[in-house]
Amino acid sequence: MAGGYCSNPECRDRVAIVGDKGQSYLIGEMAHIIARQARGPRGDGVGGDNTYANLVLLCPTCHRKVDKAPA
User: Fold this and answer.
1) How many CB atoms within 10 Å of residue 7?
2) By C-alpha distance, which of 65, 8, 71, 69 is closest to 43?
C-alpha cells in the first residue's frame, strides 16, 4: 500500500494532496509492474494484467520515467 506516497522508494513524493479548503485529491497514477503491452516498457513478451498485484501507485514524474526509460 502506498499510504499517500509515491511507491518509488527513491522518490516518496506525496500523491494524495489536501487543498486549501480541506478537499483531498489524488495526483498519483497507477502503473503496471509488468507492462500491459507484451512489448511495452517492462514487457515480458506476453503482457501483464490489470490485477492489483500488477499495479503500483507512482507520482506523475516517476510514472513517466518508468514508461519512457529504455528497457
Assistant:
1) 19
2) 71
